Amino acid sequence: MPDDVTVEEEQTVTEAPAEAPAESPADEDDELVEEGEIAADYLEQLLDILDFDGDIDLDVEGGRAIVAIDGGEDLAKLVGQRGEVLDALQELTRLAVQQSTGDRSRLMLDVAGWRASRRTRLSGLGAEVAQRVAESGEKESLKPMTPFERKIVHDAVAKVDGVRSESEGAEPNRRVVVLPNA
């Protein structure tokens, strides 16, 4: 063997297990779009079974998939009184998405613009009550609401100086109470 040939020794390096890379916002949006598409397929099949007309729109907003069904005459039946049917349909749709993806879904479903309209009304109510409480100094309790509805009211109250809001009671009778700041 010639002298100028060297043998390199292999070094064994013990590496710590690599951490999972943080999910980028683009990856999260892709997953939410996939959730929306799964939900849209599920809802399209449901509309076909019911023989209801409706257009399905998908969006991603606030870290959740938003699916809206608009355009059909019979869609009010999918909302029900005070949105009870809509809430149940949303849960079923979330379960369909979870069954497909294996992950819990926070998807938001709106039918015939009911949630959007409800959000506008509740935001106005929250601002109005907050203003009254700020002027009178007297606390005011609202009717029981769903968590979705209470969040909208809390957000509206937070925009008014001199007042704060709390939720009190147990479901399904949990309500928002607007109080003057101490």
Keywords:
Ribosomal Protein S8, Chain: A, domain 1, alpha+beta, 3-stranded mixed sheet, disordered N terminus, 2 domains, single chain, 4 helices, about 180 residues, GMP Synthetase, Chain A, domain 3
What do these coordinates show?
The protein has 182 residues and is an alpha+beta fold. The chain has two domains: 25-112, GMP Synthetase, Chain A, domain 3; 116-180, R3H-like domain (Ribosomal Protein S8, Chain: A, domain 1, 2-Layer Sandwich). The protein has helices at 25-50, 84-101, 114-136, 147-158, and strands at 55-61, 64-70, 108-111, 140-141, 163-168, 175-180. The strands form two sheets. Strands 1-2-3 form a three-stranded mixed β-sheet, with helices on both faces. A three-stranded antiparallel β-sheet has the order 4-6-5. β5 (163-168) and β6 (175-180) form a beta hairpin. The termini are far apart. The model is unreliable at 1-18 (pLDDT under 50).
Topology, element by element:
Blueprint: H1 25-50, E1 55-61, E2 64-70, H2 84-101, E3 108-111, H3 114-136, E4 140-141, H4 147-158, E5 163-168, E6 175-180
Parallel strand pairs: 2-3
Antiparallel strand pairs: 1-2, 4-6, 5-6
Helix pairs in contact: 1-2, 3-4
Offer a quick outline of the entry:
The protein has four helices and six strands; from the N terminus they run αββαβαβαββ.
- The third-level CATH topology of the largest domain is GMP Synthetase, Chain A, domain 3
What proportion strand?
15-25%
Query: Which homologous superfamily in CATH is the superfamily of the largest domain?
Result: K homology (KH) domain
Low-confidence stretches: 1-18
> N- to C-terminal separation?
91 Å
Give the radius of gyration.
26 Å
Biggest sheet details: 3 strands, mixed
CATH architecture field of the largest domain: 2-Layer Sandwich
Mean pLDDT: 87
